Amino acid sequence: MTLRAVLKGWVDHYLSDEEAVILLVVLVLGFAVVIFLGRMLAPFLTALVIAFLLQGAVSWLERRHVPHLLAVILVFLGFMGLLLALAFILMPLIWNQLVTLVQETPRMFASGQQLLDDLQARYPQLITPDQIQNWIATAGRELTQLGQRALTLSLASLGNVLGLIIYLVLVPILVFFLLKDRERLVDFILSLLPRKRTLMTRIWHEMDSQIANYVRGKFIEIMIVGTVAFLTFAFFGLPYTALLSVMVGFSVLVPYIGAAVATLPVAAVAGFHFGMTDEFLYVLVAYGVIQALDGNVLVPVLFSEAVNLHPVSIIVAVLFFGGIWGFWGIFFAIPLATLLKALVYAWPRGIKRHRQDEGGEVVVEK
After folding, report:
1. Cα separations (Å) of 157 from 162, 167, 323?
2. Under 8 Å CB-to-CB from 132, ≥6 apart: which residues?
3. What is the pLDDT of residue 360?
4. Which residues have CB under 8 Å from 21's CB, separation 6+?
5. Residues 134, 128: Cα–Cα separation, whole Å
6. CB 43 within 8 A of CB 170
7. Which end of the chain is more exposed for a tag (fewer CB within 10 A), N or C?
8. Quick count: other Cβ atoms within 10 Å of Cβ 274?
9. Over the stretch 38-62, which tens digit does the pLDDT of each residue have?
10. Model confidence, pTM
11. Which of 243, 337, 258 is nearest to 290 (CA)?
């Protein structure tokens, strides 16, 4: 079989239907807009995600016979209250602990050097003085680079104050109108699409509930894991409790990798604070229990309706979409991977089913 015949068979199989071509164009345009105009449209995309997250609460109130506008106002006021609490309570606490951690870095570095000296004295055959010096030099370079990056980030952030103000003003306004005029906006978007959109409608209905469940479930998972980590670290008297618990909460955004990365700072702070004592071991065991319960109990409960994806697919999706869109790419890596999987499985079958519904002849490939 020639290459031309193979390409013709592939095109006939996947792009022989007008609706499939239109769906492909819509997907390519959507990805192109996000890739090339994502920074410019970041406030709108952020508001869209938040509105998507809050729509479940609005629908819940409407099912209890609350008028649409009143439901939107109540949910929006709750969102603003949570936003103000984060801005005036949690963020200053995290910032103060971060400043304290930076100030304590030299003392922690000295403690780590003393720990290495003690290990070398106990196990002279396993750890040599040259290895210790190499480790200390490497750690010193990394700390120096980290300090330079922090200084550069702080200086660059001075010019982003206006952008932050724009976010704080525009995002809540956009969230309110996206919730209030949701039906009108959806009707407008549908009016731009062709009337013949059976395949697009079916894929959208399949993905809409899954993405909504994922976004809300991921938010609930972050809140639960972060809160439990905060209470656990506070119980053991671990310093920088708020900073570490926020980091542990957001680590659930990156499956498999996030938990491993978050373990390092937790173990480092616990080791420098408690030393190699029983308390240090208790903190690590408690942190391991939190991660185990999250992966084996909380995730199956929150994401029971999610499409099953292989771990390799999840990691590749996180790396790919995170490299393209940063934080939001990591956050939506699993839904986007699920969307691609749904497209791959539904595209040819959806076209054939659509033709069958119209009374056309369906050719079953062997």
Report:
1. 10, 14, 22
2. 113, 116, 117, 120
3. 47
4. 15
5. 10
6. yes
7. C
8. 17
9. 777 778 888 888 888 888 889 889 9
10. 0.68
11. 258
